[in-house]
C-alpha cells in the first residue's frame, strides 16, 4: 500500500505541474483571445466587456487558481469558439464528452487487434527462431530460418511506416479500390453503433499494424532470452514437452517486460491518435485538439492536455499494479 500511495502522490503532483505549465504557456503565447473571438472590427467597449466576462483582466495566478479550482469541482470552463446558441458558450465538459467516446472506442478496437494478433505471432515467431538456431533440431530448422528472416523483414517494414501513411494506404486500397468502406463516411455511434464499430476497424488497423510488429518482435526477443535460461533446460531434462515449456514457463516470464511495453502502447494509442482521426475524418478529441489550437480555444486545449497527461500516467500506474499481479516476488521500492 505504501508503494501505491507514493505512485498516487506522484500522479497528482505530475498533473498539477502539467496543468500549471500548460496554463502558463497559453498566457505567454502571442495573440489576443478577445480579438480572435470578436474579430478586428469589435468596439473597445465590447472587447473590455468580454475580457471582464472571461476573467482575462485578473492576474495570471488568480486566473490559474480559479481555473484549477473549477476543474477540481468538475467545472471545466467554457469554450471560446463553440457555442450552443448566439448567447451561450459551450461548456468544455459537454464539448469533450461528445468527442471522447470516439477516441476511446478507436483505442479499444486498436488494442484488441494488437493483443489478439501480436501475442500469438510473437510466440510463433519465437518457436521458429528457436528451431532456426538449432535448439529444437529436426527438419524444421531450414524452414525456421526462412520464416524467421521473412517475419523479421515484414515487421521491420511495418514498424517503419507511420500510422498516418498507413491510414492513407488503407483509405486508398480498402476504401477506394476494394470498396470495403466509404472514405469519410463516418457513422455516428449514437445512431448506429454496429456501423460505427465497423467504420473504426479501418483506422484501428492503421494504428495497430506498426504496434503489432513492435509487440511481436519484443515478445519474440523476450521469449528467446527466456529459452536460454537454466530453468528451461531443467524442464526439458525432466521430460516436459515443448508446448508445456513454451506456454507454461517461458511465456509467463517473457510477458513481464511485454506488459510494460503494452502499457506504453496503450498510452500512445489513447493519447496519440490525432493524425489518424484527421485522415479518416473521425470527430474525436484529436481533431478537436487541432482545431482548438488553430483557433486559440485555450480552455479546450488545456483540458485536453490534462486528459492526455492523465491517461499516460494512469496507464503506467495500472501497469505497475499488473506487474505485481503477474510476479508477486517484485519487492516494493
Give a structural overview:
The chain starts with a helix and ends in a 7-residue tail after the last helix. A hairpin with a 2-residue loop joins β1 and β2. Helices cover 76% and strands 4% of the residues. The protein has a two-stranded antiparallel sheet with strand order 1-2. The protein has 333 residues and is mainly alpha-helical.
End-to-end distance: 11 Å
β-strand number: 2
Q: How big is the Rg?
A: 25 Å
Q: Which structural class do the helices and strands define?
A: mainly alpha
Q: Quaternary arrangement of the chains shown?
A: single chain
- What is the molecular shape? elongated
> What is the number of helical segments per DSSP (H or I, 4+ residues)?
13
The low-confidence runs, each spanning 5 or more residues with pLDDT under 50, are none
Strand order of the largest sheet: 1-2
Give helix and strand order, one letter per element, not per position: HHHHEEHHHHHHHHH
Overall residue-averaged pLDDT value: 81
Task: Classify the helix fraction into a percent range.
Answer: over 70%
Portion in beta strands: under 5%
Largest sheet: 2 strands, antiparallel
List keywords for this structure.
76% helix; 13 helices; 333 residues; mainly alpha; two-stranded antiparallel ribbon
Helices and strands in order, then pairings?
Blueprint (H helix, E strand, L loop, with lengths): L1 H27 L4 H6 L5 H11 L5 H13 L5 E8 L2 E4 H41 L7 H21 L2 H15 L15 H35 L2 H8 L4 H30 L2 H7 L4 H10 L3 H29 L7
Antiparallel strand pairs: 1-2
Amino acid at each position: 500500500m505504501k508503494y501505491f500511495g507514493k505512485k498516487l502522490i506522484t500522479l497528482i503532483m505530475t498533473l498539477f505541474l502539467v496543468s500549471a505549465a500548460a496554463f502558463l504557456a497559453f498566457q505567454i503565447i502571442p495573440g489576443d483571445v478577445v480579438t480572435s473571438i470578436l474579430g478586428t472590427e469589435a468596439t473597445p467597449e465590447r472587447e473590455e466587456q468580454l475580457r471582464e466576462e472571461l476573467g482575462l483582466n485578473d492576474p495570471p495566478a488568480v486566473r490559474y487558481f480559479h481555473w484549477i479550482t473549477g476543474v477540481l469541482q468538475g467545472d471545466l470552463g467554457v469554450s471560446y469558439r463553440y457555442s450552443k446558441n448566439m448567447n451561450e458558450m459551450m461548456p468544455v465538459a459537454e464539448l469533450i464528452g461528445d468527442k471522447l467516446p470516439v477516441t476511446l472506442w478507436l483505442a479499444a478496437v486498436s488494442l484488441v487487434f494488437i493483443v489478439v494478433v501480436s501475442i500469438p505471432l510473437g510466440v510463433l515467431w519465437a518457436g521458429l527462431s528457436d528451431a532456426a538456431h538449432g535448439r529444437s533440431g529436426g527438419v524444421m530448422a531450414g524452414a525456421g530460418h526462412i520464416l524467421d528472416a521473412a517475419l523479421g523483414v515484414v515487421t521491420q517494414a511495418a514498424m517503419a511506416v507511420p500510422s498516418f501513411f498507413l491510414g492513407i494506404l488503407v483509405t486508398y486500397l480498402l476504401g477506394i479500390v476494394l470498396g470495403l468502406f466509404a472514405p469519410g463516411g463516418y457513422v455516428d455511434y449514437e445512431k448506429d453503433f454496429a456501423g460505427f464499430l465497423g467504420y473504426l476497424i479501418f483506422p484501428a488497423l492503421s494504428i495497430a499494424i506498426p504496434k503489432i510488429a513492435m509487440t511481436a518482435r519484443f515478445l519474440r526477443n523476450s521469449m528467446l532470452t527466456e529459452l536460454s535460461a537454466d530453468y528451461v533446460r531443467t524442464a526439458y531434462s525432466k521430460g516436459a514437452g515443448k508446448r508445456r515449456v513454451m506456454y507454461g514457463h517461458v511465456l509467463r516470464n517473457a510477458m513481464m517486460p511485454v506488459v510494460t511495453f503494452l502499457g506504453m502502447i496503450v498510452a500512445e494509442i489513447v493519447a496519440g491518435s490525432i493524425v489518424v482521426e484527421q485522415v479518416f475524418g473521425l470527430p474525436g478529441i484529436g481533431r478537436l485538439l487541432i482545431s482548438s489550437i488553430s483557433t486559440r480555444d485555450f480552455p479546450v486545449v488545456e483540458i485536453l492536455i490534462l486528459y492526455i497527461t492523465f491517461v499516460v500516467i494512469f496507464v503506467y500506474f495500472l501497469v505497475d499494479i499488473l506487474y505485481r499481479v503477474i510476479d508477486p516476488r517484485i519487492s516494493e521500492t
